[in-house]
Amino acid sequence: MSSLHHRHLAVSPDWLALYYKRPLEITHGEGRHVWDADGRRYLDFFGGILTTMTAHALPEVTKAVSEQAGRIIHSSTLYLNRPMVELAERVATLSGIPDARVFFTTSGTEANDTALLLATTYRGSNQVLAMRNSYHGRSFSAVGITGNNAWSPTSLSPLQTLYVHGGVRTRGPYEHLGDTEFIKACVADLEDLLGHTRAPAALIAEPIQGVGGFTSPPDGLYAAFRRVLDRHGVLWISDEVQTGWGRTGEHFWGWQAHGENGPPDILTFAKGIGNGMSIGGVVARAEVMNCLDANSISTFGGSPVTMAAGLANLSYLLEHDLQGNARRVGGLLIERLRAIGAGSRCVREVRGRGLMIGIELVRPGTDEANPEAAAAVLEAAREGGLLIGKGGGHNTSVLRIAPPLSLTIPEAEEGAEILAEALRSVD
Fold first, then answer.
1. What is the pLDDT at residue 141?
2. Phi, psi of 44 (to 5 degrees)
3. Given this model, what pLDDT does residue 247 score?
4. Which of 33, 46, 222, 382 has its CA 20 to 30 A from that of 292?
């Protein structure tokens, strides 16, 4: 055990997870690579949990942070803040929500907390619909609506939560159905659920479930849900903490794959926009955002430094068409990984879109989740010089692959080859 690991254990909670049998200390990064304390370089296919969105040590972001820190680091939302207003203007326009208002937080968890506060206040209901296998953060209210028991340490909650079918396409009672029939069955389930309860405040859903193992419904499911929700006056919250900013390649926001009946009432975001700086936020139409009748501020949300980073990072992403790069390079990477998976007895499915890819592992010849294999592949990939993540609602048996959106084709090929070797080691 390293000295730093020993010190970590002495002061950290037992439930604070660390990857790897020999935990890794990352000391610096550049582009799509990071280095550990021993000087070894790794290709980074997880980006600090989908947070290093453009690149490590991106000069444009580093410069913006340094220049703003040299002027003023903090003021709070009690004062006018030019970088915050400028970023809010851009996010409001990009969101697709009409008459949008933006409130910045410090994390995705806090953003989802705020969205729940808005929805329950606006609707006068503490009942919330959420998706099975979902994850929305680690606060008391966010844990209370998380449909993944590996990430929900308590059943206590300030909210009454009812869970809806549809977030997982290839498991569960409807997996045998075609896409059209799958959507019809999930809508029928929602209709039935609403017939047995008082009208909820909102449905909160990740367009692609992140911690749940990059699972998703067929395109159009949430549009079909929207028709039902609108009849009951129920709001739709799209949790875009992991799917936002073009990561899926085909769309800038995950909700756009389900946009036939318009944008969500509330959209939450975080992670990639700050490229590692602590930014989250909520976008809602003015009627919903302004429903609170008490004062509120944010001490750290919208800080001048993080807003400067967000502006520089968003500008870089748009100017260099990183959404297009995610579509092109991600499409090639998914096909390469599917070819590799076809030759592995442990791979049940390779899924995802853009640079948001999951590889679900099972015990050979069965549909039974194989968390031991996932842990072993994680270790083998690290030994091969590649960092990936893991997750999944079925005993953490999914490898999560989400590199910075500037990933190159040679880097994608390199990472795929390391993953192929890692999978061969557990077959």
1. 81
2. -100, 110
3. 98
4. 222
Q: How many CA atoms lie within 13 A of 186 on its CB side?
A: 34
The 3-class secondary structure across the chain, one letter per residue, is CCHHHHHHHHHCCCCCCCCCCCCCCEEEEEECEEEECCCCEEEECCHHHHCCCCCECCHHHHHHHHHHHHHCCCCCCCCCCHHHHHHHHHHHHHHCCCCEEEEEECCHHHHHHHHHHHHHHHHCCCEEEEECCCCCCCCHHHHHCCCCHHHCCCCCCCCEEEEECCCCCCCCCCCCCCHHHHHHHHHHHHHHHHCCCCCCCEEEECCCECCCCCECCCCCHHHHHHHHHHHHCCEEEEECCCCCCCCCCCCCCHHHHHHHHCCCCEEEECHHHHECECCEEEEEEHHHHCCCCCCCCCCCCCCHHHHHHHHHHHHHHHHCCHHHHHHHHHHHHHHHHHHHHHCCCCEEEEEEECCEEEEEEECCCCCCECHHHHHHHHHHHHHCCEECEEECCCCCCEEEECCCCCCCHHHHHHHHHHHHHHHHCCC
Residue-level pLDDT at 11: 97
Distances (CA, A) of 46 to 34, 37, 43, 319: 11, 19, 9, 23
Neighbours of 19 (CB within 10 A): 16
**Which residues lie closer than 8 Å to 346 by C-beta, 6 or more apart?**
361, 362, 363, 364, 370, 373, 423, 426, 427
Amino acid at 18: L
Name the pTM for this structure.
Answer: 0.95
CA distance 409 to 387: 17
Task: Give tens-digit pLDDT for 271-318.
Answer: 999 999 999 999 999 999 999 999 889 999 999 999 999 999 999 999
Integer Cα distance of 4 and 286 in angstroms: 48
Q: How many residues are recorded in the chain?
A: 427
Residues of the chain with pLDDT under 50: none
